Amino acid sequence: MDLVLDAVEAGHQHRREGEVGVGAGIGEAQIRVYKKSDYTSGLITPPYIQGQSETKDDGRWANPVYLDSGITYTVVYNKAGVIETTTAEVAL
Hints:
The protein has one helix at residues 36-40; strands at residues 7-10, 30-35, 49-54, 65-68, 72-79, 83-91. It is mostly beta strands. It has one domain: Immunoglobulin-like. The strands form two sheets. The protein has a four-stranded antiparallel beta sheet. A two-stranded antiparallel sheet has the order 1-4. Strand 5 and strand 6 form a beta hairpin. It is globular.
């Protein structure tokens, strides 16, 4: 694993009241994080994923992702047959 400097930890514990997140009780939802510029350009294949996690049964992230500061990211949540793809922008 590469050493990442100036990285910011992101996960469920960093949400502010009212921000988009996966509701309580939705486990195993996929969470993928892209640079906003990549996501809006349709670049969503594995080389463009900046971090990923999934949710626990209580809706919390199973593990944090570490992202570089000074970038705006698009966080993508979904679980087939349970929740539609939902996105949220995060500026670090």
